[in-house]
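Support request, please re-run this one:
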Amino acid sequence: MSDILVITQELINDVDRTINYFTVSDLRRKNKFIYQYLSDFYLKQKIPFDKVIQFLRNIQQNEASFTILLENLYLCTMVIQQSSDSRKLLIQLMQSLAERLTQTQKQIFFDNFDEEVLWECGFVQQDTFSQRKRKINTDKNFFQNKFWSMKDENEGYSKLMVEILDAAKHTDIYDEEIKQRIENIIHLIGYFDLDPDRVVDIIIQSWTEYPCSLSYVKILKQFKCISVCQFLGKRFESIVQTLSNNNNISILMTKMANSAQVMQTDQKIPDHKLIIITATALKYKLFELGNIWKYLQPNDQDFSKIFEDLAEDSYKFYKSFDQVMQVEELRDSRNNNDQSEKLKKDLFGQQLYNQKLWLMQGLIHINAFNIFQELYKSFEGIVDFTIFLPIKRTLADLIDWMIDPLHEQQFNKTLFKSRSREQKKFIYDPNCTTAFQIKQLEVIDEDAISILNEILSIFSPYIGEYPLVFHKLCKVLIQSQNPDVQPLILDHLIPALQSGECLPIVIELWKYLGQLDFRKRFDCYSKWKDLHQFSTINQTIRAAQLTKEHIRSFFNKIDKDNKDKMMVKFAKLSHNQPMIVMNVLRRNRLEIPDNNSVIVHTLGLATPLSLDILQFIMIQWLCDFNDESKVRDKDIECRYWFKNIAQFIASVLRKYYTIDMQGLFAYLIDVFSTDQSNPSISKNESIIKPEILILRELIEKMTGIVHIEDLTPQQIQALAGGRYIQLETTSQTNEFRRSRKSSSALEQFFWSQTINSQRILNQNNQEEVVSLAFLMLVVLCQQRSRFILNYHNQNLKPLVALYDNFTCSINQLTKCLLFQTDKPTHYAQLFPENPLERMVIDFKLPFEIAFHIVRYSYKSLYNMSEEEFQEEVDNIKNIYDKIDPKIMCINPDINNQQVPQLPLICHTYVKDILWTIINPELFTIFWLLSLDNIYVPQAIYDQQLKWLQENINKNPDTKDRQSKQHQKAFDKLQNELDNNKKRQEQFDKCLRDKKHVFSFKEADQAKENYHIKFAQCLSQVCLLPRILIDPAEAIYCAKFVQKMLKIGKPRYTYTFYVPKEIIYFTFTYLQCATEEEASNLSIFMQQLIIPYANWNDETKFKNDLRNYFDTSIEGYDREKQYIIQNIFFKMAQFIRILKNNETQVRNALIFLKRVQDIFPPTQQMAEYIKIYLQDVEKDYGHIQDIKTQIKNFHIEDKINTLPVYAPKNTNTAHESKKQAPNQEKMKSVGKGADGEHEEYNHKEHSEERRNQNNKTDGRQVPKKKKSHDKDRPLKRLDKS
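Re-run finished. Output below.
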């Protein structure tokens, strides 16, 4: 330390001396001295600045000392803080020292200090120093000599190229020789010090020339993935740059912006091989998708304006299409601006030259579907392949390649062209575990269905553009018989029809679809319709818009003259776009008057799929309207548009009867169904069921059986005959003949297709399968019963019309079913076991309606053995006994003045005495028989046969078409007449064999008022319920009474007493009957009093009694008087009181019109009726139709033509009533007369003679019998 102080003092005193002259020889001591000199003396300002400079200049002359000086200066810069005074002195010292340094010393000086110190001293510029430093570092550390391998400037690259090109020969990645190639390449890189990145670039360049060689995958796995991505990305960028320089992209942009249709291209891009190797690298996990995705071009922003225009153009189509497809009441409240923005987003980046889309196509091409699917899902469903054909084409080739083995197995001979070239594109690598690969299918199993579902969820909107692949896929899936393929077909293939045009595909799909239940089909159609409404795919939107424009133009041009020509055009439009075409048809054309026939004809070439979709659209449209909107206000009359729809549906099903009608009938059943646990109708509930019009129109059109409301007397009599006489008398033969195909289709529909189609819950809550026809009849009857049980809560007038409408529909449907079959066993197939009990007890249907439906399913009476007959008697009696009158009877509201007290059809009192009055066997026979069993209208047959024979004789040409038809009709009628006669003879014989059933016991006839109780029970339990159903039933009831009296041969007075009492009990129902029921009642009473119609002609009168009742009388005057006063006059009295309300007036007028040929029989009764009509006209003349009916009677003109028969005074009348109609000797004639019967009549006549001599005997029957003739009917009526 002492030495340093000495030297320092010397330096201070003599600045000319340098450190070299000091005796200090140790280097360490020198270093320490200089540092302390600078820090302790200079920086603390103990030594002047000029002396320090002089000292340092002396030191720099020696290189070793200069180095030590720089080291100490560096230490000072590290120790002294910035922005201090010492720091400033140090910087000043360094700047002065640097000015006098040599160039070499400056270099050494700069190398010893940090960048910050040099910046402070001002030796370098801060902005350029960093760049120069990087450049210097790069030149220093990374500089390499570059060699051109093709000129053999470096031997290593030449050898490398040999190894790389030789590796291209090995296409299998798992080839063992590749390992040797990889070792050679690595050794070459190390031996010749080759650049690894340059080697990667060379390998990629070679791979682009041989993209199918997988050996490069294993080679590139030895290098960094970042290097591989960088070189691939640079290649993508360079291609885009090349296209930009040549203005190719601007040309593509212009084409896309100006294109009005979808752009299609099949040309390969320049970087096609680059796409393939990039996709292969992704498949084998050389790098992740995100590493290469950022390099793919072009930038979406460069094309934003193009796709904004394209999105706006597509949205215009979408908006117009949305207006066509959506129903006004169910319009979606989407915001137009939001939808436009969504479409812009959907179409953003969807350009023709898009490397990202090409990469997706390449992933499919090299069988890496999972990566493609992952990439597709990353777009969140917004990608649209409409303008990018390569992806669509590749997906089509993939499906074709997948299913080709299956297609060859199932179809040896095929029209499809060989696609071996395409099939070679897709290679399945069984050893690849880095990607999910699709392989060719050998069987359609769960895995195959899952794969196809994934592919079709992307490709189904476009598969229609490739009809061969589409058809091939349909055939393979359908032929597989695997039920799990159903979602594929319904969710993907059916909606895919809209994307192309191929009729064979539609037919192939319908073969499968037509076998499914209508519920599954309709569910598929519903999803298809929603797909149309909310689709954002350009191709779907534009195809829909184009179809809509064509169909509108079609409807503007079609008329009756060009309907055949336009039929072909309509078929082409509807084959692949049935949802749009049929929807436009429904919305715009079906409400136009007189348009149904043209439209129905236009559907002639439509496929079954199109017709089924039309049915679905019609049903869905009907569901959108409530019942009140289908009818006029405050009326049950359907609106015109609904009538037009009903006629259109019926016309379509008649002409195209192969349509599956289950959907329509299921809709009708659902409309008519009621909740039996709560049969009441609330005031807010709609009772209007306008869909009944559809059912009636359907039956009339398809069967040719039209319901005629106002039947002529001829037509009424023809109801007793077979189907042909009924058709001939109603002029429906030609219509029935034209409907035979649709009628047969309806038969097949009821008996084959829907025999076990409806599932219901029985009383035990167990599922049961029934036929559609049975269920339809049940719901119609239940709805009809609801009208009866709830009439006091509703407006009466529409309720009455609805009740008649449903009754006619039940009759019409039953008649339709009966016309389809002639065998009871065949008809019985429609019903479950013991159908009568099921309908009456389980479904709570009226007994008479249930029997009316199932009657023809019973075995014919003459074919029944005695045991079978007795079994049926017990069964029917037990069923009737189970009926609860509280549930089945009519319970009128006594406070309702519009409707009088109704006669109860199943009254408790009647049930209590029923089996003591009426034999159960008689009850069973009455319900089992029908009109054609007991009566044949011989006169009507003869008249019609005569007319046909005359027409045949006028035109004897056997080749004439009309003559042939007349001859066929003649033969059918003659054959039908002969069969009916034979059948009637068999029934007559059977009934005669059961004569004991019809016979009245003498003990019963001796009871007081027995005939009244008998007539009451027979009327309320048997006659009246059956009369109200149908005109044929009304005639049957009258004929049955006559047949019963004829076979039973009771006392001769019963010939007059029983019909009279029956008239009394049935006539009262006119007070509350509907118009149809009043007409039926009138027909019944007309037929019942026909035997007494010739009361004014003794000969005819006796002949009529003999013919109808097998009874002969010798007297005449008393019988005539009895008939006039107790039958005809009482009827007139009944008519006089039917004026309390409009319903009674209408029913009275219906009765008078129906029996006008028989009633009124005398001038006095005509005067009664005249007064009645005058009173009615006075009270109800403001109702136009009532006033018109009154005028049409011409009662004043009729009075003068009638005989005069003055009724006796009241006392005389009562005395005459107490006398029997014929007190003279009478005898019974006919085939049934025998000794026993004559003895019975003799005994009866003896009793009558004893009665005339006023002999009093407690056992005398006539005296008790006479008490019945008091004025009871009027008194009963007054009570009600």
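The first helix runs from residue 2 to 13. The longest strand covers residues 758-761.
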